[in-house]
Amino acid sequence: MSSNFSSSNKAVDFNQMPDARGHFGPYGGRFVSETLISALDELESLYRRLKDDPEFQAQFDYDLAHYVGRPSPLYFAERWTKETGGARLYLKREDLNHTGAHKINNTIGQALLAKHTGKKRIIAETGAGQHGVATATVAARMGLECHVFMGEDDIHRQSLNVYRMKLLGATVVPVTSGSKTLKDAMNEAMRDWVTNVDNTFYIIGTCAGPHPYPELVRNFQSVIGREARQQSLAQTGQLPDALVACVGGGSNAIGLFHPFLEDESVAMYGVEAGGLGLESGKHAAPLNDGIPGVLHGNRTYLMEDENGQIIETHSISAGLDYPGVGPEHSWLKDIGRVSYVTIDDDEAMAAFRSLTKIEGIMPALESSHAVAYAEKLARQMDPDQMIIVNLSGRGDKDILTVAEIDGITV
Amino acid sequence: MNRIKQRFESLHQQGRKALISYVVMGDPAKDVTLPVMHALVASGTDIIELGIPFSDPNAEGPVIQKAHERALEHGSSLRDALALVKQFRETDSDTPVLLMGYTNPIERMGYDTFIENAVDAGVDAVLTVDLPPEEAEEFNEHLKQANMENIFLLAPTSSLARQKKVTSMAGGFIYYVSLKGVTGAGNLDINSVNENVTSIRSLTDLPVCVGFGIKDGASARAVADLSDGVVIGSVLVNQIAVLAEQGETNPATYAEAVSVIITEIREALDK
Ligand SMILES: Cc1ncc(COP(=O)(O)O)c(C=O)c1O
């Protein structure tokens, strides 16, 4: 199968993105009120200084190996492949990381940055609660005060993670404004940051937000793709033919994709939440059904109405329930390097059940979107081809949601 | 000449300070804002700052956030705000009107369409909270061609280099945000205001006005002594919220209530 990435794009140097002001083509940038500019400048110069510092990199690698448990396996899902019929399906097992998702790769990195700033107070926004848990975890380990903003609706559907954060010593701040989900949690975190900017480090959980966040989150998460690339070569002697990852803000996807962007033979699929179906309008798929605009500090594809108001999204998975997307994905869509597709709630649920039964691996509902799409894709491909699916997190956090659908009280 | 410039010149000649009043368009109902605007002017407002409702006003504290939510409940939009200014101009051709909002609704309308309609309506200036100078070049060009002022914020966290950059691009007046935080937060640090306003004034001839955290005549007076004017926002919006919660529907009641607040502040400023 050939990628739809045209050779005319060969001149694009993916490692040179973003530009000095954080732009990925027309996307990204820094759209924030004046009070935050100095904090972002400070973060950017700190990151520039530490990014290529061998000591910083060594500390990051050490923490990933000994605290997170990396490298995560690249697992050949033999039974799932057989049942599906088609290309060989491999799972990049981010679910096996400490705290159960890819989110910890990024919080380890940002916590190291926070340490260098000397700031003693950490804030974060969270949707599914995985980023909140990953932030509370690194804060506990470093003895830092931690406040996690979470939409009231998400607090209900992810109550297990809320309790985990509390056990870890974090304060979970319920957000009641707007749609009471991830986007509002992010607004509230930005408000807190503006107010407490002198002593507070904001750990953003996805590759969105004002520059330099999309760049640094991508770079911390790129460990996923670097490992997957080496593992693929070591285990099969070849590069994968396709990569599949779910896209909420897009951090697990960009982490897997980025180290492969220059490998033209590797096709890439970002899977957005189709909710009740694209036609219903009740989904969280800005790259499929949105237009470019400005929110949360960056220019990117958004779900909005004709007056430029951000509209409420819907997805069965809290971690994908977000009206925007990281700016690099907007750019990768426009240049045609990555295809963005959707999987709806029902398809994701079915994939959750089937992977659990066939492989004994319970995927997060977010990751189940990638699993569902990979199944469709594999059937259109040959048995000698290979797909890597990013299994971004484990599904334990979702069992109450699934039980509720089944009409069971746990 | 642009009305904002004109207003500051006449204030300067009279030795008076500017009083800028902020309300959100359509809060709590579309028919309330016009009488409120006229009442603000009648009780001593020099410049009206009209907030454009946005779904994600993340520089606002809870009071103004809720005002945005009330306005959006019945679909108030940028289009409505422009129509409102046009209506306001039918009986008030002098008072400068500044639109304050977020980038996305303006971009959705398109810079060209927005500016054409804003000029037609009689808007004098625009403040986009989340469009700092680095991202504002194109918008600034459009505004300049239409003789509209682009108002920029400066904050306690703005470095000297930053103050230089912003003052070199700004028009109308400099809006100095008196505290670290969202609208309606905390208490003023007069010393820090003094230090920063003095520094900004050494860089520009534009008037410097101070907003965020000014609650009454006394705090307005203290800040005005150090600057060219004050912005009053959350106190007005809070009063509107109180009436809205009581289920008040008569626009005249809202107009009276804001007049009481502005009259007190005007007196303190003119003392
Ligand atoms: C397991 C898992 N996968 C994916 C996501 C979506 O985020 P992103 O698109 O940034 O990877 C989340 C977010 O909470 C998550 O918990």
Helix-strand layout with pairing:
The complex is a heterodimer of chains A (410) and B (271).
Chain A (H helix, E strand, L loop, with lengths): L22 E2 L2 E5 L2 H18 L2 H15 L5 E3 L1 H7 L3 E6 L9 H15 L3 E6 L3 H13 L2 E7 H6 L1 H9 L3 E5 L6 H14 L4 E3 L10 H9 L1 H14 L5 E5 L4 H7 L9 E9 L10 H4 L1 E5 L1 E6 L24 H8 L4 E6 H15 L5 H15 L6 E6 L7 H7 L5
Parallel strand pairs in A: 4-14, 5-6, 5-8, 6-7, 9-10, 9-14, 10-13
Antiparallel strand pairs in A: 1-2, 2-12, 3-4, 11-12
Helix pairs in contact in A: 2-4, 4-5, 4-9, 5-7, 9-11, 10-11, 14-15
Chain B lengths: L2 H12 L3 E7 L8 H10 L4 E5 L10 H12 L4 H12 L7 E5 L1 H7 L1 H11 L3 E4 L8 H9 L3 E2 L1 E3 L5 H10 L4 E4 L12 H12 L6 E4 L5 H8 L4 E4 L1 H12 L5 H20 L1
Parallel strand pairs in B: 1-2, 1-9, 2-3, 3-4, 4-5, 6-7, 7-8, 8-9
Helix pairs in contact in B: 2-4, 2-12, 3-11, 4-6, 5-6, 10-12, 11-12
**Which small compounds were modeled alongside the protein?**
pyridoxal-5'-phosphate
Helices and strands of chain B, in order, run as: HEHEHHEHHEHEEHEHEHEHH
CATH class of the largest domain in chain A: Alpha Beta
What's the tally of helices of chain A? 16
Name given to the CATH architecture of chain B? Alpha-Beta Barrel
Explain what this protein looks like in three dimensions.
The complex is a heterodimer of chains A (410) and B (271). In chain A, 43% of the residues lie in helices and 18% in strands. Chain A has a 6-stranded mixed β-sheet, with helices on both faces. Chain A has a 4-stranded antiparallel β-sheet with strand order 1-2-12-11. Chain A has a 4-stranded parallel β-sheet with strand order 7-6-5-8, sandwiched between helices. Chain A has 410 residues and is of the alpha/beta class. Chain A is globular. Chain A starts with 22 loop residues before the first strand and ends in a 5-residue tail after the last helix. Chain A has 16 helices and 14 strands. In chain A, helix 4 (103-117) packs across helix 9 and helix 10 crosses helix 11. The longest helix of chain A has 18 residues, at 34-51. Chain B is an alpha/beta fold. Chain B has a single domain, classed as TIM Barrel (Alpha-Beta Barrel), CATH 3.20.20. Chain B has a 9-stranded parallel β-sheet with strand order 5-4-3-2-1-9-8-7-6. In chain B, strand 6 (152-154), helix 8 (160-169) and strand 7 form a beta-alpha-beta unit. In chain B, helix 4 (78-89) packs parallel to helix 6 (111-121) and helix 5 packs across helix 6 (111-121). The model of chain B has no long low-confidence stretch (mean pLDDT 95). At the A-B interface, strand 2, helix 1, helix 8 and strand 11 of A face helix 3, helix 5 and strand 6 of B. Bound molecules: pyridoxal-5'-phosphate. Residues 101, 127-128, 130-131, 206, 246-253, 319-320, 364, 366-367, 392-393 of chain A line the site of pyridoxal-5'-phosphate.
